[in-house]
Fold each of these.
Amino acid sequence: MLWDRRTTTAWSHLRLPKIQFQQFSGELTDWLRFHNQFKRIHEDESIDDGGKFQYLIQATTPKSRARDIVESFPATPENYRKAFEYLRMRFGQEDVLIQVYVRELLKLVLQNTEIKKVNLSSLYDKIEAQLRALESLGVTKEKYAAMLFPLVESCLPAEILRAWERYVGYSSDESGKKDLDSLMKFLSIEVSSEDRIKLARNSFDSEKSNYKKKLENLSTTATAADLFNSNFKNRKDFKFKNNNNNCIFCEKKACL
């Protein structure tokens, strides 16, 4: 793809906002995000260890476990790597993190046994988040599919499980294999379908609401036939816009 030099020059002068630290409190599920963010500073050779120590303090939440651990080391350049490695030892052990994310999947299983109606789109996003975290820890779908597949399948509500079984039964090609990749592909299709249905229904409901408002706002001014009705003055379902009962055609005093 060819880039216009003027466009490139304009982008080079664009002032981007500064990246703000998302502070780490000591929650194990936040370690990967924190580590991926902070490692740029940790590996930057242009920053001395004293400066890195100050960044490490700022990158932790005040009055949290993580901040307490960092501040337990005297803030000297020599102690920076000790503090960082101690944080990694406390919160970044891969085997512990794997257990955390597997338990998060189990938590989804338990939650869905208590909830009658499950938001499939939200559930799919949560499952994907746990699987991506596990994959970043080396727990690939291929290596741990036998463990992850029944967990993910158990997260699904009954009606989605029935649709999944039909999907597997009706598929004559490899897409009908009962494995984790096929299940996630099926869920992706279901979520996309659900989003399209919601979009269609919301559009219809909006049009229906607008139509009802138009009906409600229709003028109840009397028709010509009503003007000749001797009982017209006693009808309560018509509202005049003025109190003088002027003729609606010539705006003169109505002769009724």
Amino acid sequence: MLWFFFCVGLLILAYFTYGKVVEKIFVINPERKTPAQTMADGVDYVNMSNSKVFLIQLLNIAGLGPIFGPILGALYGPVAMLWIVIGCIVAGAVHDYFSGMLSVRSNGASVPTVVGDHLGVWAKHFMNIFALILLLLVGVVFVLGPAKLLASLTPINVATWVGIIFAYYILATLVSIDKIIGKFYPIFGALLLFMSIGLTFGLIFSDIKFYSVGLDFFTNYDPKGLPIWPLLFITISCGAISGFHATQSPLMARCIANEKSGRMIFYGAMILEGIIGLIWCTLGLSFYESPEALGAAINAGSPSKVVHDISIALLGGVGGIVAILGVVILPITSGDTAFRSARLIIADFFKLTQKDLIKRLYIAIPLFVLGFIISKVDFNIVWRYFGWANQTTAAIMLWAASAYLYKSDKFHWVTTLPALFMTCVVVTYLAYAKIGFGLDITISTIIGIAGSILCLGLFFRLKR
């Protein structure tokens, strides 16, 4: 447990130190009016308080990723905690800060527009397609995950819960952001914090021991012998770095009241998500007697079973159910904003105003039909494609932030270094994984390094 608290301490310290460094590099302007003030429309551009925007941002970005990902990552051993801490501080929180603040500076523009502004028109068109695919995958993943958990607690089957959740998504996507999201998500945020704190204390005061005590943090303990590189960095995305957040930050960029709040809302929310990821990774490393036992539980019922078993064991019947509901709320509150972001991206592309309900329906209905069709695909297959698409989006967003800093004569390495690393991760994974080309890991790694070097060379050819 000392290692867990040390990691949490590092994340909190980073918010007050490295977060300020990132803010100074960006150079905020507290006197500059934000999109919530200059483009208010009562639907998507709505001025809200910092506390509301922070909690909504946290719930938007914290879907199943910081729970399922760290549980799966725990199979590799304590090295998973290292990745969450380092990745969150120097990559994930930096990524979220720039995706949010660059959107603020671009009138609340969605991620394809932000990327296009700094990497060119071709990048914008690519991101329009890629972001929509990612958001549809996210929406589907964040339907199936909570539906399975709810089915385990009630006599209602998974298919029925899928239909109920989709119905809620349609409603939340169409109405003004302050009607449902602005009113209820802060309450859900309190439930999320209860779940996180409750499980932490449950672990502290239980007689459960780390199965990994005394083990080498750089040894791979995966029961199937799957390699840490590059799989761990795809498996644990939310909690370390996630491109999905780049699609969500513009939602709150349209509601933020002052640029000086950006560090708390964007960098800070990611730090808190990293802590949630650490909690579930620690639980995965602690609750079962070995990596093999954890793997068996996952195989028996996906990470949903692990969440159910741990919550009930540590917090009892009532407390466990409340904790599980917190885990259910996370993906649902991210899934609805995923579809909302998809609607706004399409609206931006076709220059359709979204103040009228009928124009929102023109976009939303086809999106939900397509999402429902994808939900029929095997969950494990959808999750793998989601993982790769998610981290690829993160790499592209980091390159866009680097281009902004480079062309502004600011210190671009704060985003360029994590962009290089994530590019190497996603290219290597695509070359190695079965959903990609299925090549040897050594050859795949060489291709990944070459891909990163190529991107760096193209980056330095950007015209000032």
Amino acid sequence: MACNGLHPRVGIFAIVSDEQGRILIGRRLSTLGKGHWGFPGGHLEQGEDFFACVERETLEETGLEIRATKVVGLTNDKFPELDKHYVTVFTKSERTKAQQEPQVSN
């Protein structure tokens, strides 16, 4: 399967839970998965570490400061109808400030 001649993109997502065991999810705004529920995250930038990426993306999307602690899963997703291919890394992450609440981001 050709994906517009480019290499797969790398996506990074944070699985963040609170003291009550609730997991943070939000509705996706990007074209890929728009309107579906998902974890905060984004694209890995050139030279960026997995954990630094997911911490940055989560802060940008939710206002939460987190610390990524462990890679817990990987997927290899092909979307031929969109001519896209993603390798996605899922991280277990924790809030650095327990009292902090996520904010809605546009």
